[in-house]
Structures are given as structure tokens and as C-alpha cells.
Design goal:
The chain has about 200 residues and is an all-alpha fold. It has a single domain (about 5-185), classed as Orthogonal Bundle (Hypothetical protein af1432), CATH 1.10.3210. Helix content is about 65%, strand content about 0%. The chain has helices spanning about 5-10, 30-50, 60-65, 70-75, 80-85, 85-105, 110-120, 125-150, 155-170, 175-180, 190-195. Helix 2 (about 30-50) crosses helix 8 (about 125-150) and helix 8 runs antiparallel to helix 9. The longest helix has 24 residues, at about 125-150.
């Protein structure tokens, strides 16, 4: 049986720091980010189903969110202002991401490739799944700006404004619910979120 380097590569996601061009009070790596996106995407899917008549699979969406940045183990994390600087850069980077996704999938034993392809390659996501993972990704980036600003790091002020615009553009009932119910706690101290009501 051939050996696979797939999971050895995934384990290195913890070595790729996000927000590489910005001063960070708390360093965040891609592995940590992916777990938080999975938590939030799972919640968004449940909220969509319970409150807004959705018919999505929360467990599948959580898995998609876990793998949504897996290809960055090969490409690194390209900062958003660079990635979206102009349409040509965006288009070329999407091609690079697709090549990295396929390279990662091809590291798996043949009999496992199609199962993981549906998680790693976003061409296999439904529109609802794509939207929820993108919303969760943007929400988690926004939460990072709140945490940094709450710790006094003004470096994240423009990022916060940009992400508010992104959230507004990706708005949905489930995301608005999450913003209203869960997000205010992120600007509070530990004492404030642990006090009995």
C-alpha cells in the first residue's frame, strides 16, 4: 500500500499565520481559523433550518468549513487586499487555489479521493453550502477584528470597516440572527461573559 502525505500536509495548517501583513496581538493560524469557521457555519446552518425554513445539512456544512482553506497548506494565506486588488489577480489566484486543491486530493489513496474531493473542491458545494461557508468565513474574520480592536490594536480598524461591508453584501436572515445573538459577546471581557445573569 502506498503512503500518503495528505494528513501530514493538513497538520501544517497550524504553521500558516493569517493576517500576515498586519500587527496582531493574538496570532491566528489557518488551522484555528478553520475550526472557528466550522463552528460558525454549523450554527448558521442550524439557525437557517430551525428559524428560516432551510433544508441544509449542518454536519456536511461543518465539514466543508473545516476544509475550506485546506489548499492554503500549499499556497499560503494571501492577504485579502492583495487577493482582491483587481479582477485579474483574483482570477489567477482562483486558478492557483484549484491547482492546490487537486494536488492535495491527489495525495490521497485513489479509493478515498472522491470522498475528499466533495469536501475540498468547492465546485461540489451547493449554492446554499457555498453561501453559508463564505458567510461563516467573513463572520470569523470580522470577529478577529473585534477581538483585536477590543485589545487596543487599531491596525484592524479598516479591516473591520471592510468586513462590515462584506457582511452586509452577504447578508442573510441566519447571519443577521448570529450577529444579533452571538457577536456582541466578542467585545466583552472574560469576567463579563462568565458573570451569572
Amino acid at each position: 500500500m502506498d503512503k500518503s502525505h495528505f494528513f501530514a500536509h493538513l497538520s501544517r495548517l497550524k504553521l500558516i499565520n493569517r493576517w500576515p501583513l498586519m500587527r496582531n496581538i493574538i496570532i491566528e493560524n489557518v488551522s484555528e481559523h478553520s475550526l472557528q469557521v466550522a463552528f460558525v457555519a454549523h450554527a448558521l446552518a442550524i439557525i437557517k433550518n430551525k428559524r428560516f425554513n432551510g433544508k441544509v445539512n449542518p454536519e456536511r456544512i461543518a465539514l466543508l468549513a473545516m476544509y475550506h482553506d485546506a489548499s492554503e497548506v500549499l499556497t499560503g494565506d494571501l492577504p485579502t487586499p492583495t487577493k482582491y486588488y483587481n479582477p485579474q489577480i483574483t482570477s489567477e489566484y482562483k486558478k492557483i487555489e484549484k491547482i492546490a486543491q487537486n494536488k492535495l486530493i491527489n495525495m490521497l489513496p485513489k479509493e478515498l479521493q472522491e470522498d475528499f474531493r466533495t469536501l475540498i473542491d468547492d465546485d461540489f458545494y451547493t449554492e446554499d453550502e457555498k453561501n453559508i461557508v463564505k458567510q461563516a468565513d467573513a463572520l470569523c474574520a470580522y470577529l478577529k477584528t473585534i477581538e483585536e480592536l477590543s485589545a487596543g490594536n487599531k491596525e484592524f480598524k479598516l479591516a473591520e470597516q471592510r468586513l462590515k461591508k462584506t457582511l452586509s453584501e452577504r447578508s442573510s436572515s441566519e447571519m443577521d440572527y448570529f450577529l444579533d445573538v452571538f457577536v456582541p459577546s466578542f467585545s466583552l471581557s472574560l469576567d463579563e461573559i462568565t458573570m451569572d445573569k
